[in-house]
């Protein structure tokens, strides 16, 4: 049986949010699909945009939920069921404001860590035993000393300074993701740790 992997980028749909920090997960997968020449299709049944292709002998199913971040679990659960993907072959890419900008961390399982999108996925799948790649978008100062509204921060745009290195980070996110697909979480974690 051929292996199928579901890669999910969390973010908010629409041009208004396209370049916000909250859409970092979306952007990593969008860049990968673009590099492969794959085209996105709206799947109403799944409540998201999907592209499917073969990479390195593995069928990759990329999903961008159209439900907004806080309801992403609906689309993830539907895709898992529709494509008959095992939870061990699911990776969720998500922005993480508690990691400094540019840092990345991949785990085989774990808590939502306060991220509403991950909470939604966890609630819809009835498990936290799925892999997630956290993409750091945190402010320069310690998060505990950040005085603005956290919601405004993640829904804000990357600074001009951040945008200069964003292409490299989008590439790094893809590298970690593909390493996870091919070699598993331990090797992917080593790559993330070198970031």
Outline:
The chain is of the alpha/beta class and 195 residues long. It is built from 6 helices and 7 strands. It has a single domain (4-193), classed as Rossmann fold.
Write the layout of secondary structure elements.
Elements: E1 4-9, H1 24-36, E2 41-43, E3 48-55, E4 58-65, H2 72-83, E5 90-100, E6 104-107, H3 116-125, E7 131-138, H4 150-154, H5 160-183, H6 185-193
Parallel strand pairs: 1-4, 1-5, 5-7
Antiparallel strand pairs: 2-3, 3-4, 6-7
Helix pairs in contact: 1-5, 2-3, 5-6
How would you describe the overall organization of this protein?
- The protein has helices at residues 24-36, 72-83, 116-125, 150-154, 160-183, 185-193, and strands spanning 4-9, 41-43, 48-55, 58-65, 90-100, 104-107, 131-138.
- By secondary structure, the chain is of the alpha/beta class.
- β2 and β3 (48-55) form a beta hairpin.
- α1 (24-36) packs across α5 (160-183), α2 (72-83) crosses α3 (116-125) and α5 (160-183) packs antiparallel against α6.
- The mean pLDDT is 94.
- Report the β-strand fraction as a percent range: 15-25%
Radius of gyration: 15 Å
Number of strands: 7
Strand-and-helix sequence, N→C? EHEEEHEEHEHHH
CATH homologous superfamily name?
Peptidyl-tRNA hydrolase
* Straight-line N-to-C gap: 35 Å
- Largest pleated sheet: 7 strands, mixed
Shape: globular
Number of domains: 1
- Strand ordering within the main sheet: 2-3-4-1-5-7-6
CATH architecture: 3-Layer(aba) Sandwich
Which runs of at least 5 residues are low in confidence (pLDDT < 50)? Answer: none
- Helical segment tally? 6
> How would you state the average pLDDT, rounded?
94
What name does the CATH topology carry? Rossmann fold
């Amino acid at each position: 049986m051929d292996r199928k992997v579901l890669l999910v980028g969390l973010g908010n749909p629409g041009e208004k949010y396209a370049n916000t920090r909250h859409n970092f997960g979306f952007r990593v997968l969008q860049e990968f699909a673009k590099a492969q020449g794959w085209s996105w299709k709206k799947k109403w049944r799944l409540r998201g945009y999907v592209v499917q292709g073969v990479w390195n002998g593995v069928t990759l199913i990329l999903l961008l939920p159209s439900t907004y971040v806080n309801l992403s679990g609906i689309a993830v659960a539907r895709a898992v069921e529709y494509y008959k993907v095992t939870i061990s072959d699911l990776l969720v890419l998500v922005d993480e404001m508690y990691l400094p900008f540019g840092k990345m961390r991949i785990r085989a399982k774990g808590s939502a860590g306060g991220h509403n999108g991950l909470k939604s996925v966890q609630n819809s799948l009835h498990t936290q035993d799925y892999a997630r790649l956290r993409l750091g978008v945190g402010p320069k100062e310690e998060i505990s000393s950040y005085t603005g509204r956290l919601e405004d921060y993640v829904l804000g745009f990357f600074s001009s300074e951040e945008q200069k290195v964003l292409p490299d980070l989008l590439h790094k996110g893809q590298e970690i993701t593909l390493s996870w697909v091919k070699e598993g979480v331990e090797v992917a974690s080593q790559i993330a740790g070198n970031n």
